[in-house]
Design a protein that fits this description.
Distance between the termini: 40 Å
Strand content: 15-25%
Radius of gyration: 16 Å
Number of helices: 7
Shape: globular
Mean pLDDT: 92
Length: 239
């Protein structure tokens, strides 16, 4: 499996499943500490610790862990990573209960409701130490903007690191097999809302779009995302 992929100086994508299927992200802080975004599936912590080692870091260097949302492929390893690192776990207030209990938020479609009740869909819950809200600028590598993009889950967020020009889309958009698409409907709590709030990603300024599912997009990322959204009925406001 590939190691950390540098998106910008001090910002890395960490694939935790083959073919960039599920990604976490690492921000290296000026003081030598680390901020981790997402913890992958239950088995991902071993891969995350190995990735930190490649970057010359230890689990104890992690000073905070942020979750884009409370689904098992992003929060499944959260309890183990908190145990490894001792770092506080932070998520949007609307997903905090789900992250604490390891229960998937309710789904919008009939198929989603069926899949949510299959064995193995829950994950070990994890204490949540702090929460954030839309528009918060977190003290991460010079400032990380929280962009609330609910619908995939109630508290789903994207993150914009303005200093590097890196946008972490979370599951608001996938880049599956290097093709942009919305999150599959059966994963969503509110499908229309997930489509509507994805439009916010067309309103932001960034150079690199980093996806939690799929490889990053470096060449005219914002232009490609705006084109995708406009062709599907989204009309991002002009800047």
């Amino acid at each position: 499996m590939a190691g950390p992929v540098e998106l910008s100086p001090g910002v890395f994508r960490v694939p935790t499943t083959p073919m960039d299927g599920v990604n976490s992200f690492v921000f290296l802080e000026a003081d030598g500490t680390v901020t981790l975004v997402d913890c992958g599936l239950k088995g991902a912590p071993k891969k995350l610790v190995a990735a930190l080692a490649v970057l010359g870091k230890q689990p104890t260097d992690v000073r905070r862990i942020l979750l884009t949302h409370a689904h098992g492929d992003h929060a499944g390893g959260s309890a183990k990573m908190r145990e490894h690192t001792g770092a506080p776990m932070v998520v949007h207030e609307a997903d905090a209960l789900y992250a604490r209990t390891g229960k998937t938020p309710p789904k919008d479609t009939r198929l989603g409701k069926v899949l949510a009740h299959l064995p193995g869909t829950d994950w070990p819950g994890c204490p949540i130490d702090e929460t954030f809200g839309d528009g918060d600028r977190l003290d991460v590598a010079g400032g990380l903007l929280v962009v609330h993009t609910p619908g995939h889950s109630p508290g789903h967020v994207s993150f914009l690191h303005e200093a590097s020009g890196v946008l972490i889309t979370g599951d608001a958009l996938f880049n599956f097999r290097s093709r942009l698409r919305y999150s599959p409907t059966f994963f969503c709590t509110d499908v229309p809302q997930s489509r509507q709030t994805a439009d916010r990603l067309g309103e932001l300024d960034y150079e690199v779009a980093a996806f939690t599912h799929g490889p990053e997009m470096r060449d005219r990322a914002r232009e490609h995302i705006r084109t995708f959204l406009s062709r599907r009925g989204g009309i991002p406001r002009q800047r």
